[in-house]
Write a structure and sequence with these properties.
Length: 259
């Protein structure tokens, strides 16, 4: 299960902490049930919390010049609301032992900064899709719109390529709409459609790139590092047409035409 700790949210602290001491204090306060050290007890600990057998890892590290206390958990089986709520409750319990030291929060899976007000809201179950999945765009003239955060729920993050500025709002709506369907039904059971009702299907980005202009933003190559957070399961969308000889032809332009 450790390799599936795909939801990673961290407290930003003003100095490195001793993870073992923080975890033991949270156990004494009743916010963590039990723990086991991971190699160096000062660096990381595996914990159970909330009266369940599900585990998480609490780890200290430095990233982008910030000292972090990162909570790594698998929350895919709990869904967006319950999964993020449980992880936020663990973050709350750790933050209570770090009073005066917490300077912020960063959702490393969604590649976005949050704060303790966000943690406190999510911890009571007030969770929206935008709390879990963030959609961003890059490019000038020709744009690339993509999401971060979906993969922790066992569905791929989505990407759209070759957009102009007038299509950005539509792309954001389409990606959100498709994520709602994937999160509600799961990857294997989802019959996907655009907001207009046009049926679509997922094409892994590695397969799609060979049919798209290489100079478009976001188009990569197999084995190429495109940047942080872009190495997980990711897909783009094609309009679904009737198959010929048992195969579907890809139609990426058909998706853009509806934006």
């Amino acid at each position: 299960m450790a390799d599936r700790y795909t939801s990673r949210i961290a407290l930003v602290v003003d100095a490195p902490v001793h993870v073992g001491d923080v975890v033991q204090a949270a156990i004494a306060a009743g916010d963590i049930d039990r723990s086991r050290p991971v190699r160096d007890v000062a660096e990381a600990a595996e914990v159970n919390w909330g009266g369940r057998m599900a585990k998480a890892v609490v780890r200290r590290l430095a990233e982008d010049g910030r000292d972090l206390v990162r909570v790594e958990a698998y929350i895919g089986g709990d869904g967006v609301v319950n999964g993020l709520q449980r992880q936020a409750q663990l973050l709350q319990g750790l933050a209570r032992q770090l009073r005066g030291s917490v300077e912020g929060v960063v959702d490393l899976s969604a590649r976005t900064d949050r704060d303790m007000a966000w943690v406190n809201r999510v911890a009571i179950g007030a969770v929206d899709r935008d709390d879990a999945i963030v959609v961003v765009d890059e490019g000038e003239g020709t744009h690339w719109v993509f999401s971060h955060g979906a993969a922790r729920f066992d569905v791929p993050d989505l990407e759209l390529y070759g957009l102009d500025r007038g299509q950005l709002a539509g792309a954001d709506e389409v990606i959100g709409h498709l994520h709602d369907q994937l999160l509600a039904r799961g990857l294997k059971r989802a019959d996907l459609a655009l907001p207009s009702g046009t049926p679509v299907y997922l094409v892994p980005v590695l397969e799609a790139w060979k049919d798209l202009p290489m100079d478009w933003p976001g188009i990569g190559r197999a084995g190429e590092d495109r940047g942080p957070g872009l190495d997980g399961p990711r897909a783009t969308l094609s309009v679904m047409h009737k198959p010929r000889f048992g195969r579907y032809r890809t139609d990426f332009a058909g998706v853009l035409a509806e934006l």
